Amino acid sequence: MREPPERSAPRRRDRAVTDDAWIRQRLHEAPTGVLATVSDGQPFVNSNLFVYDEAAHVLWMHTAATGRTRSNVDADERVCFTVFGMGRLLPADTALEFSVEYDGVVVFGRGQTVTDPDAARHGLQLLLDKYFPDLRPEQDYRAITDEELRRTAVYRIVIEEWSGKRKFEADEFEGARSWLPRDR
């Protein structure tokens, strides 16, 4: 257990998760995340599929070869990335005390557009392995081609620091209920 650096420390220290193993697990399990970049002072967020490469302590993701994410990362490598989840709704006697269970991880790091074809292939393959763990290249599908590499931008986020945050109540919480999305 360790205290997160000030830049990434949650305001609510009582909800901070200081267990790096929990943070790593949350990054492995989260299906999507949100990447924050900035260009000329204008924030930009983009939801992404991603994979946490624990051995290299980096995140991998990709977008189209051109676009706002690519231009922002190329102009300023400082990025922030987050994953989060929501649990039960927690009603209360007063409006101010209503709450929800939640957890999340915030990562600060340096985003890099990967230009080395072997590294880009590696990152893309890790993404495929995360989302389709039962399928193998050259066995279940054609492997990534050079043309496909030219049509995508692969990013590696070198993690500088991270923090976790979690609010979870005991199972007996009176009136707790699941949140379900409304019909669309």
Characteristic key phrases:
globular; 184 residues; 4 helices; alpha+beta
How does this structure look, described?
This protein has 184 residues and is an alpha+beta fold. The chain contains four helices and eight strands; from the N terminus they run βαββββαββααβ. Strands 1, 2, 3, 4, 5, 6, 7 and 8 form an eight-stranded antiparallel β-sheet that branches. The N and C termini lie far apart (42 Å).
Using only C-alpha atoms, the radius of gyration works out to 19 Å
pLDDT below 50 for ≥5 consecutive residues: which ranges? none
Estimate the mean pLDDT confidence: 90
Please identify the structural class as seen in this structure.
alpha+beta
By DSSP (H or I, 4+ residues per run), the number of helices equals 4
The beta-strand count equals 8
Task: Give me the oligomer status.
Answer: single chain
User: Which range does the strand content fall in?
Assistant: 35-45%
Largest sheet: 8 strands, antiparallel
**CA-to-CA gap between the ends?**
42 Å
Helix content: 10-25%
Secondary-structure element string = EHEEEEHEEHHE
Shape: globular
